[in-house]
Amino acid sequence: MSFWEFVSDRWSRLLVEAVLHVSAVVQCALLAGLIGVAIGVAVHRSPLGSTAATALTSAVLTIPSFALLGLLIPVLGLGVKPTVVALVLYGLLPVVRNTIVGLGGVDPAVRDAARGIGMGRVRVLTRVELRLAWPAILAGARVATQMLMGIAAIAAYARGPGLGVEIFAGLTRAGSANATNQAIAGTVGIVVLALVLDGIFALIGRYTVSRGIRGQ
Q1: Which among 37, 33, 87 is positioned nearest to 61, based on CA atoms?
Q2: Would you give per-residue pLDDT tens digits along the chain (216 residues)?
Q3: At a CB cut-off of 8 Å and minimum separation 6, what does 55 contact?
Q4: What residue ranges in 31-102 does DSSP mark as E strands?
Q5: CA–CA–CA angle 161, 94, 208 (5° rounding)
Q6: Closest Cα partner for 170 from 158, 160, 179, 161?
Q7: Which residue, 141, 122, 117, 105, is CA-closest to 33?
Q8: Cβ neighbours around 50 below 10 Å, total
């Protein structure tokens, strides 16, 4: 059976796994984004706090995916829970780092001007600083999402959802009929989905970053 015949024969199953893969990555990226921005906002004024937050999230990223899932499985069991925790942890670093960099790059004169017209600290943060830092935060979320697309495939080791199931099944059955097609189908599917999500992020940036900030 050729690769395209395999894809056509398993189309329904591959489509379901692709939807589950994207759903898991998008939800975990959103959760990592919310947590990462909150951490960045909390520590960006403190050099020590910023260094500690960046170092901790960097340390998480250095843990091999198999090792982290292996540590989580005895605590959370198999399935969705360890997958979500692992993906959220891996997605934190780009968001935290870019939030700190973005907020740190806001011109103090702009901040002072906002305070000078009567804005409180919360309004300055939400209506001025975060808006100016948004391109950097969005870039961090974009990197995190692309990274999680690949890492999510490893989650099949913990019986997580997604196209990683096809890759693991193909590698496990290496040498048997359609094993290569199965592994390639999962891999190509992840690459295609990653490109689609990247295009969506480009559109989000196009319509949420003002021309003044983009320099156009």
Answers
A1: 87
A2: 788 888 888 899 999 999 999 999 999 999 999 999 999 999 988 999 999 999 999 998 898 888 888 888 888 888 888 899 999 999 999 999 999 999 998 888 888 888 888 888 888 898 889 999 999 999 999 999 999 998 988 888 777 888 888 898 888 887 787 888 889 999 999 999 999 999 999 999 888 887 766 654
A3: none
A4: none
A5: 90
A6: 179
A7: 141
A8: 22
Q: Express the helix, strand and coil content of the chain in percent, nearest 5 each.
A: 85, 0, 15
Tokens of 159: 């019986």
CA angle 148–189–36, rounded 5-degree value:
15
Whole-Å CA distances, 122 to 24, 127, 134, 138 = 32, 8, 16, 21
Reduced to 3 states, what is the DSSP secondary structure of residue 215?
A: coil
